[in-house]
Amino acid sequence: MGLEILLATNNQGKVERYRRLAKQINPAIILHTLKDFNVDAVEVKEDGNLDENAKKKAQAYLGKTSLPVLANDAGFFVEGEGLIKNPKRIALNSDENNLSKEQIYQSLIHYWQNIAKKSGGAVDAAWIDEFVLCMPDGNAYTEGARREVILTDKVFGESHVQFPMRALYISKTTNKPAASHTKEEELLEVAPIKDALAKLFEKIK
Description:
Shape: globular
Low-confidence stretches: none
Number of domains: 1
CATH topology: Maf protein
Distance between the termini: 11 Å
Number of strands: 8
Largest sheet: 8 strands, mixed
Structural class: alpha+beta
Radius of gyration: 17 Å
Mean pLDDT: 91
CATH class: Alpha Beta
Helix content: 25-40%
């Protein structure tokens, strides 16, 4: 019997990534989207640290189905800038709902390019991810992941519309631009996320 979990996100890029990693961890794990259960998205005020925000997201959907809920919050740490959360709110000059996905993508690309330019075109950085798995009984488990990269002001190629930064950074794990990764190299880069998810899934077998 498979382990079924509800993903507390409408980000298609995250859905694809988590499903791919979950399949590698355990093919019996089934990650459901909100659409699978006709659950409406809930706006959560992200005013805490990463693990607090992730827990808020998970709890917002707890009880909408009978399934455990997996949520994530992430920030991007840049040397000299600190942890940057919710860059959309900073980068976009107008309401996100009035912009196309391509306009949002380009606005974020320019935002991160300007961050890198402050340091001469390249700067040490890292993705910081926090994951929370809330059980139907209210118990919650947390795991974190960190991926070291070099943020640059150079566009190396096309990236997923919901992961624009991948067009700009070099993974320290592969020493290659993320936008040029093969599927195997991308799995190497996101190995810390896979490890975090594996630890969470292990706790609820």
